[in-house]
User: Fold this.
Amino acid sequence: MRKFTKTLITGVLAVATSFTAVNCAGRAGSTDVPEENVDTSKTQLYVWNYNGGYGTDWLYKAKERFEELQKDVVYEDGTTGCQILVTGEKPGSPERSAADIRNSKFELYFTEGQDYYKLFLGDGNGDAIGDITEAVTTPNQFEKEGNATVMSKLTAQQQEYYTIGGKVYGIPHYQGNFGFIYNIDLFNQKNLYFAEGYESAAKDDDKFLGRERDKKSAGPDGIKGTYDDGLPVTYADFFTLLKYIKKHNITPVTWTGKYREQYINLTFNAAAADVDGAEQHKLKYDMSGTATTLGTLDADGNFVKDAAPTVINDKNAYELARQEGTYQAIQLFGGIFGSNANYDDLFARNSSDENTAAQLRFVRGQAAILMEGVWWEGESEQANNFAAVSKKREECNFGLMPMPKPEGHVGEKNTVVDVMDALCFTKAGLSAGKKKLACDFIKFVYSDPELVAFTKNTNALKAVNYVISEEDQRDLTTFGKILYKYVHDSDVVYEYSTNPLYYNNAYSLRGRAYYQGDVAGLDTSGSLAPHQYLLDMGKTGKSDLSAYFSGIAAHWQKGWDNLNKG
Assistant:
């Protein structure tokens, strides 16, 4: 059932592989079982964890709390209590294959970049991962209040996706999205915030804080006294900010040149989703529903929305390449890349420029805005980037900038796209005692107290619903606090679907590869994506944003019939 079409995904598999190796870099090591003294008087559970940007410290601490809590529980005859044996070593890839799992001693897994349906179908055997329905659907005895199930913390989209034939074989692990991260300390030092009443200022410089303008604007949420005060609201504001940053001899935006393909494409996807909204963006994955944001371009290259909605199905879902979000994301990134003064071209295309090197430039204040994934703080800490500026991670102040909006969309709810495909699952064929232990540990890790503990440890979020109290938020870094607030107040879309047309072609249809376009006059072997066409506008002499929008629509209409129909 699982086949991939070469015509549309040539080169994309390599993209996916490099992304998972990049987005949460960690320490190198082996995949051997933990070198701990095994206590045979207890029941063992071997746990494999991808030690990326979110690390393994959260898991070590969780397992200690669990072992103490369960020290008198009998899981297997002849034993009392349990021993959770954890590996935190990072292999070449965070993804485990069905063969890896079947041939491994590890029994519980926390992975990243893991295609759940591909893993479940495996080599056609479907016997690599185990049934964890018990852990997910029965009351959770580890909750402080009530006995809520793990399943109740999943969104409707997640519940549908992870339930196969009435059973559950995996659940989402951690979450991660792309966006524009800004250096709060630098913004404060250089007064890079918009001032109250900036809309009426005649000169751009007068839009920002200064001696006569000491109050920040209300920011994107329109409410004074919140984390986004003084930040750009519209695309026009964002471009004005970039020009103002340049006047301070600071690079406005930076990113990793080595992984520019993933980082640019996925941030582009984030901008597109934020315009279309969760329901319309999700059509890209479900390919079923009514599209209300489709349009075409007039003679002047302006977007004109279709007069009537379009009912989307497997046969015509290529029409979604005409969504307004795609058009507006082109305008946003065209504005950023339209002037190489907005970024440092030396790094932007440098295939040796590591993601942690870009983060270091940002931490040092050489660039004001970092185009990145929200796991970046963990990576930078592991790379000693904060030590390079003689600070600890918690002493630095960074924020996630709300995605600016095009005119006509100001005030709309933010939409976040999770791109991690992080997964928790067990190996199939565990003994009754081992399965009970694994299910109990899953319940424990997904209880509210442990979800909060995970966020306090990593300053990142699990991809399930939970609330962090004001008191607990005090223990987060500035970035962690803002990330929680932003995601908590946004609609979240996950890049997966139960539609076979999608999951049989997922590598081509996910945001990191979706925005390919056939642009007249340019080499389109393999087609062009945002990191190629938009970043290379000056280099190619082609700066027609309309041509790129039309090229995306043409690409998908032409290639749709070549997709694997399953």
About this structure: The first helix runs from residue 6 to 9.
